[in-house]
Amino acid sequence: MSIELIVLDVDGTMTDSHITYSEDGDEIKSFNVKDGLAIASWRKLGRQVAIITGRTSNIVARRAKELRIEHFYQGIENKKEVLEELLEKLELTMDNVAVIGDDLNDLQMLKSAKISFVPRDASAYVDKIATVILSKKGGSGAVREMIEYLIKKEGLEAKYLELWA
């Protein structure tokens, strides 16, 4: 059964987990453009992307919109429950899902997915249950590494490269 949906946590996976506040109280986050290109490529291959994050941030909403991620959930306490609801809506099962997360609030979602990924700098507790511990840290290309791993595993390399030929 193929992976049709990737689910992304944000802080610590798409970002380096730092949150910076300006003197005016503005929140600042940095995203990796290489992750973004891989996410866009995954979508161009006809696969789906969801963001399920515990925090709420206009910056993350903007990034999700830029990347045309249509399944976007923030301020979520029980990520697994939201994932199950999304799967029902999309008529998919956990066998069709790959998840990336880095901390305890991702634990149940990581345990449930067919394949789970954690960045190199994830919590030791989630490392123990992850299918793949990535070589990249969160915010430093971990999401791209996950997607390229899946592209190879799914036999999509030729199509992936063709997107940019």
Structure write-up:
This protein is α/β, with parallel strands linked by helices and 165 residues long. The protein has one domain (5-162): 3-Layer(aba) Sandwich (Rossmann fold). It is built from seven helices and eight strands, in the order βββαβαβαβαβαβαα. It has helices spanning 33-44, 58-66, 79-90, 107-112, 124-127, 142-153, 157-162, and strands spanning 5-8, 20-21, 27-28, 48-52, 71-73, 97-100, 115-118, 132-133. Strands 5-4-1-6-7-8 form a six-stranded parallel sheet, sandwiched between helices. A two-stranded antiparallel ribbon has the order 2-3. Helix 5 (124-127) links the parallel strand 7 (115-118) and strand 8 (132-133). Helix 1 (33-44) packs parallel to helix 6. It is globular. The chain starts with a strand and ends with a helix. The mean pLDDT is 96.
